[in-house]
Write a structure and sequence with these properties.
Layout: E1 2-6, H1 10-21, E2 25-29, H2 33-46, E3 51-54, H3 57-63, E4 66-69, H4 84-95, E5 104-107, H5 115-120, E6 127-130, H6 140-145, E7 150-154, H7 157-166, E8 173-176, H8 179-209, H9 214-225, H10 246-260, H11 266-282, E9 293-296, E10 299-302
Parallel strand pairs: 1-2, 1-4, 2-3, 4-5, 5-6, 7-8
Antiparallel strand pairs: 6-7, 9-10
The structure holds nicotinamide-adenine-dinucleotide.
The site of nicotinamide-adenine-dinucleotide (NAD) has 25 residues, from α1 and α4.
């Protein structure tokens, strides 16, 4: 198939790469020429492939069968998701729909529930699908090339069949007849990660007060891990979650539930507050932070031979 990528940054570049490795033709688009040079370097590392790069949005939607948008969905200064770039791109494509070879437009960015239903109405002919990226920045190549799951929301058979063909042979492909459910699943996962990090940071702080060292704290995590997978998110005990996604998505989701749904999410509010406390005390972990703990054969282990973490 001919696959188009609109917005070839972190997610777009590796999404395109994953399809190149499956034998598809890929056209990468971005407004930033330097980013397209980075895409060429990434692809070159994996071999010789049939692909193009361009800054021309319409070229991509004219030529490609399936177009994935991987555009930024940052928050505005008040912590609400800013969908203006996605909206601009969808509006522009919809004006040239008659000239488009594109059959399915795929929303890959993380977008507040309800976005796809609204955006899809702008197209008359092109079908819409939701297929969020669950990659973690630190493992972006591994997570994109061999994702643990592929989750797709569609509302019609054409999009369903095309997406099914595209992802034939991939692991754990889940296709549901609902856009909003898939959008929610992405936030549910990110907010759960944030919750677990804040939770374990708090337990870590308690453990220190009662004389348990960072090394002994591993035993606590591993006892919990014997019957659940809920302890592995603590990679750097004490440090607040940061990086490109968790703080932005938690804040946007809280604002969405409060303003759009008129629900006060007490747990998520607390997660954010706890994170701010740990940010002030221990700092923020970033996408490039080195983990102190690692998971090996289902056990949480010290990754760095670092004694005296946080003054112990
Ligand atoms: N980074 C992550 O770990 C991660 C993981 C999962 C999901 N996501 C989500 O994926 C989406 C993209 O994130 P990212 O990290 O790849 O962002 P990014 O900033 O790395 O990439 C976005 C790219 O879009 C380009 N762009 C901006 N405006 C454009 C336009 N009008 N037309 C074409 N290109 C344009 C930018 O130049 C940039 O290269 C976001 O919704 C994010 O929340 C990110």
């Amino acid at each position: 198939m001919k696959i188009g990528i609109i917005g070839s940054g972190n997610v777009g570049s590796v999404t395109g790469l994953s399809f190149l490795l499956k034998g598809h033709f890929v056209q990468f688009q971005d407004i930033n020429k330097e980013q397209l040079e980075k895409v060429k370097d990434i692809v070159r590392n994996y071999g010789n492939f049939d692909y193009l790069v361009t800054t021309d949005l319409l070229e991509v939607v004219k030529e490609c069968d399936v177009v994935f948008e991987c555009l930024p969905t940052e928050n505005d200064e008040n912590g609400f998701i800013d969908l203006s770039i996605l909206e601009y791109v969808v509006d522009k494509i919809s004006c040239y729909e008659e000239q488009c070879g594109c059959k399915v437009f795929v929303q890959r960015s993380t977008c507040i529930p309800g976005t796809a239903l609204k955006m899809s109405k702008k197209f008359k002919k092109i079908k819409y699908a939701v297929n969020p990226s669950f990659l973690i920045m630190k493992k972006k190549f591994e997570d994109a090339i061999s994702p643990k799951k592929v989750v797709i929301g569609v509302l019609d058979d054409l999009a369903k069949n095309i997406m099914k063909d595209l992802y034939a042979g991939w692991n754990n492909v889940v296709i549901v007849n609902n856009f909003t459910l898939v959008e929610l699943a992405k936030y549910a996962e990110n907010c759960l990660q944030s919750t677990l990090i804040s939770y374990w940071n708090e337990i870590y702080e308690i453990s220190k007060k009662i004389g348990i060292s960072s090394r002994e704290f591993l035993d606590v995590l591993n006892i919990v891990s014997l019957t659940s997978d809920l302890a592995s998110s603590i990679r750097i005990p004490g440090m607040a979650f940061g990086g490109a996604c968790l703080p932005k998505d938690l804040q946007a989701f809280i604002n969405f539930t409060k303003v759009d749904l008129n629900i006060t999410p007490l747990v998520l509010d607390a997660v954010l507050n706890v994170n701010n406390i740990f940010k002030n005390k221990y700092g923020v972990r970033s996408d490039s932070s080195v983990d102190l703990y690692d998971v090996k054969n289902g056990r949480i282990v010290i990754k760095l031979e670092k004694v005296g973490y946080h003054g112990e």
